[in-house]
Amino acid sequence: MVLPGGMMDSDINRHCAHNFPAVAYTLGRANWPQLRDTYNKLATDDQCLSPETRKGMIDALPQFMPMDNSMLNGNWRYRHEFAKQCNKLCEMYGIEEINRTMSAIALTLANDRVSEVRKEAVHLLSQILARLVDHEWADLTSKQESSVDSPSPATLTELFVHDLVSGFANTQKWTRRQTFAYVCERVLLDHALSMEQFRYFLLPHLIAMADDSVVNVRIAVCRALSLCDSSVQSHAIASDSRRLSPLTVETVLERLAADPDMDVARAARQAMGQTVGNETVDVSMRGFRIREKENAFLDVQLVDNYEEDDMSLCSDYTSSETPTRNKQMGLSE
């Protein structure tokens, strides 16, 4: 289409895209709702965006999501919407841009105090991991086959997984460990990685959390392990000096099926494909245990001054078939 003055639509888009970073910087993050639709339109216009312009647009993202306390303690709906937009943009950029900008945003939002923001960030982490592995898997497999005497530099995928494991799986805060299990579940649901890739990068760390002291974490582990196919179920994951037999998904689920907590045992049996619908539950004992943990949790709340808006810490992905309750009560992070 030719507009008055002889300009084409593509010319206007090109000029808008070229100047968008400066406009975004000038208007600031408070005006993101007015800029969001324009950003999405320009970012998806393959005919007018040069690599330099695309780079400038993604470099503008941190202007809307600075990693400071004012943003992290502000309106959670803004952070939720921002994570959703990043999910839409993830497929459009190369791994260098994703690693430089989006990975830090995703890791930060995955630790948000609001469960809805964390849930959207888990989707983004799954997408980022899929993009990195897809681009570097051939190099990683050849790296495995190379001699140990000639170590090569870590790839972007290995660095990202290291950040994910150290910041979530191997942390003292139980909600982060639970989030790591959610990431594993999301990766399997999205088929973001093949089973071989999942076993290589994430499964050993997920298996290690099967002995977690927090019930909610163990339930999340069961839900993630339920999505592993038969090629992984019987595959030896890691050797454990405390056990004579090799550790497999099957053996882990069997151990969790005998867990003293009834909800963990139920989740494990569901993961193994066993019917649990007609089980008899001792309601009186369950009520006593819940009241006991409620009292302990209130004591902890008075000491640690927990925020009231961070109480939705149960599984973000719990289905209607799985009993839901705040299992963290009475347990330290």
UniProtKB/TrEMBL annotation:
<dbReference type="InterPro" id="IPR011989">
    <property type="entry name" value="ARM-like"/>
</dbReference>
<keyword id="KW-0677">Repeat</keyword>
<dbReference type="InterPro" id="IPR016024">
    <property type="entry name" value="ARM-type_fold"/>
</dbReference>
<dbReference type="InterPro" id="IPR051023">
    <property type="entry name" value="PP2A_Regulatory_Subunit_A"/>
</dbReference>
<feature type="repeat" description="HEAT">
    <location>
        <begin position="202"/>
        <end position="240"/>
    </location>
</feature>
<dbReference type="GO" id="GO:0005737">
    <property type="term" value="C:cytoplasm"/>
</dbReference>
<dbReference type="GO" id="GO:0019888">
    <property type="term" value="F:protein phosphatase regulator activity"/>
</dbReference>
<feature type="compositionally biased region" description="Polar residues">
    <location>
        <begin position="315"/>
        <end position="333"/>
    </location>
</feature>
<protein>
    <submittedName>
        <fullName>HEAT repeat protein</fullName>
    </submittedName>
</protein>
<feature type="region of interest" description="Disordered">
    <location>
        <begin position="314"/>
        <end position="333"/>
    </location>
</feature>
<dbReference type="InterPro" id="IPR021133">
    <property type="entry name" value="HEAT_type_2"/>
</dbReference>
